[in-house]
Amino acid sequence: GSSGSEDEAKPGTAAAAAAQKREERLRKFRELHLLRNEARKLNHQEVVEEDKRLKLPPNWEAKKARLEWELKVEEKKKECAARGEDYERVKLLEISAEDAERWERKKKRKNPDLGFSDYAAAQLRQYQRLTRQIKPDLEQYERLKEQYGEALYPTSDSLLHGTHVPSKEGIDRMVADLEKQIEKREKYSRRRPYNDDADIDYINERNAKFNKKAERFYGKYTAEIKQNLERGTAV
Predict the structure, then answer these.
(1) In 3-state terms, the chain is what percent helix, strand and coil (to 5)?
(2) Sorted alphabetically, which keywords does the UniProt record give (predicted)?
(3) Taking the complete model, does pTM exceed 0.85, yes or no?
(4) Cα distance between residue 189 and residue 15, in whole Å
(5) How far is 216 from 212, CA to CA, in rounded Å?
């Protein structure tokens, strides 16, 4: 009787084990299905983010970092103003000597004065210098936006002539800058006085400039040879 009951229990035990294995496989399948859906969702998000990054300008990261830094500076200035402190003084107190020296070296490397190479490079340097001096009036800009609306941003079909009248302050700034440029240009391009009694040792203006440079660098080494040639006693 006991052996019969054991034989009857074995099929039930085997069926329960098979059902448990099947349930385990279904659970793993559901887990894998959820993981696959999660991976698909993450891949889609990454594709969307990459597409956004590709559509951004190439220097977007640098611009973003610059804007974040400017916001921090503005917040710091407001905090200093609320406490009645000078922002420039506070900023200098927070900068270490090593950072100040490193910043100064970087500043010199950023805009080195390479001298005159050609007129295009000189014009570019002047353009960069002038644009760095521009301090936009944001309040005036907002007023113009309210006044002109979309007309403030011209297109190829816009009629620009006679639609803008510069302010007196803008004209004064332009005149002051032009006078400064003229004064600087005259200082560097003034004509040297001509000496009628000087010896003529050149054939044209370009050769005269070359001779002056040669005299400035090598005159002390060739003075004796030149005197011998003038006296006719050169060997």
Answers:
(1) 75, 0, 25
(2) mRNA processing, mRNA splicing, Nucleus, Spliceosome
(3) no
(4) 106
(5) 6
pLDDT in tens, 48-99: 888 777 777 777 778 888 888 888 888 888 888 888 888 888 777 777 777 7
Strands (E), the chain: none
**Cα 189 from chain centroid (whole Å):** 33
Three-state secondary structure readout of the chain? CHHHHHHHHHHHHHHHHHHHHHHHHHHHHHHHHHHHHHHHHHHHHHHHHHHHHHHCCCCHHHHHHHHHHHHHHHHHHHHHHHHCCCHHHHHHHHCCHHHHHHHHHHHHHHCCCCCCCCHHHHHHHHHHHHHHHCCCCHHHHHHHHHHHHHHHCCCCCCCCCCCCCCCHHHHHHHHHHHHHHHHHHHHHHCCCCCCCCCCCCCCCHHHHHHHHHHHHHHHHHHHHHHHHHHHCCCC
Q: Which 3 state secondary structure label does DSSP give 95?
A: coil
If 0-12 CB within 10 Å is exposed, 13-18 middle and 19+ buried, where does residue 87 land? middle
